[in-house]
Amino acid sequence: MAQGMSWIKTNMRLAMNTSDETIAELMTDGCNMGVKSLSRYLNQYKAADDRAKAITKKLINLETDLCSDLRVYL
């Protein structure tokens, strides 16, 4: 249900405005949700393999960097 609502929201926003600002806003929202979810999992599974934790931390950093890079377009 949430995935369907997200799809509708994204497509409606893009149908109304396809500017760089709108796309950057959508991507920033996605990055923030990804960081939030990954951080939750990282805290939830403290006994996870160290390699898995390292990959998760790297992905969090990548998403954070992408979010920062997108601020130019907002």
Task: Give the SSE layout.
Elements (H helix, E strand, L loop, with lengths): L1 H15 L3 H25 L5 H21 L4
Helix pairs in contact: 2-3
Organism: Roseburia lenta
Protein name: Transposase
What do these coordinates show?
- This is Transposase.
- It comes from Roseburia lenta.
- With 74 residues, this protein is mainly alpha-helical.
- It has one domain (2-73).
- The protein is built from 3 helices and no strands.
- α2 packs antiparallel against α3.
- The protein is flat and about 45 Å long.
- The two termini are 29 Å apart.
- The model has no long low-confidence stretch (mean pLDDT 93).
Summarize the structure.
The chain contains three helices and no strands. With 74 residues, the chain is mainly alpha-helical.
The run of helices and strands is HHH
Total number of distinct structural domains: 1
> What can be said about the biggest beta sheet?
none
- Molecular shape: flat
Number of helical elements = 3
Task: Provide the structure class.
Answer: mainly alpha
Mean pLDDT, nearest integer? 93
The total count of strands amounts to: 0
**N→C terminal distance:** 29 Å
The low-pLDDT segments are none
Q: Roughly what percent helix? A: over 70%
Rg: 15 Å
- Share of β-strand residues: under 5%
Protein name: Transposase
Organism: Roseburia lenta
